[in-house]
Amino acid sequence: MNLRKAKLFACCAVVMLAASWFLSPRAVLLAQAPSTSNHNATREDFDQLMTQLSNWGRWGKDDQKGAVNLITPAKRKQALSSVKEGFSVSMERNAEMEPALDNQQPIVHKMAGGGRGRSGPPSDIGGASDSFFIAYHGFVHTHMDTFCHRMYKGKMYNGMPASAVTETGCEMGSIINFKDGIITHGVLMDIPRLKGVDYLEPGTRIYPEDLDAWVKQAHLKIEPGDVVLIRTGRWARRDAKGPWQTSELAGLYITCAKWLHQRDVAILGSDAAEDVHPSGIEGIAEPIHALVLVAMGMPIFDNLDLEAVSKEAAKRNRWDFLVTASPIAVPGATGSVLNPIATF
Fold this sequence. Notes:
The chain has 344 residues and is of the alpha/beta class.
């Protein structure tokens, strides 16, 4: 064998050996192995993510809609066209009227008029009225957070200054910017179902690997402008065992913020406060809240009741649907009570 043939033979042998390795079961397993995220993030990691995940200036220096800009007219039309049955289900928790460990400010409902305490025959024309007092931020009432609800080092999303929040309300970053409502594609991430349990125990961390596993199992695709809804089973556990201190809640670990940013999610929602409690990050009780609202400009749907929509999704083996939601139009408000609707 001459030198040229020997070199050719050696090259072929190397190629065949490499091919056999890449096609081996071990190589296939390695290629398919899910990547793991950092499970021991620090305050330094949080500070870095505030810069790395920033959408400041992406939609202009004066923008006050943030990632909701990703819900384009084309996105709305696409979401509306995805409706197959026209079956709708609410994702709002019924009003909690009694004090509890997780409900320090119950909704106050006062009635007026009607037949209250009256004697004698009714008048020909009667009626009744009522009033509500709702301190909606917290861990029980379903609501939407907007940008002036959170700040980092004196600034809100897009660099809006803390000084824009005055005694009369938010001059920038308020809920009024979403008066036209939310109409888009929603995706339910049912993590208890992924784990084969009815609900996650308080303090359970949800990692990006869990989100990837559910996307694969449910045959989902997350697209720009989607609303991503995280079910932890919080209400199923509360209804079964009663309320508990919110210092422990299942939820997203800090590393999930990058997962959301990479997929251009428009709005994040969950059946609790999105963040796992305790967060594991020194000095930052809710890093997901801060990263989503301040860095990414992504509004939040807090304290959703995802039990009914989970059951309906399971019946259909369909984990995506149209989402519609309309916050109340209060100028200067840091958020709004909300009744989001899922339509299959």
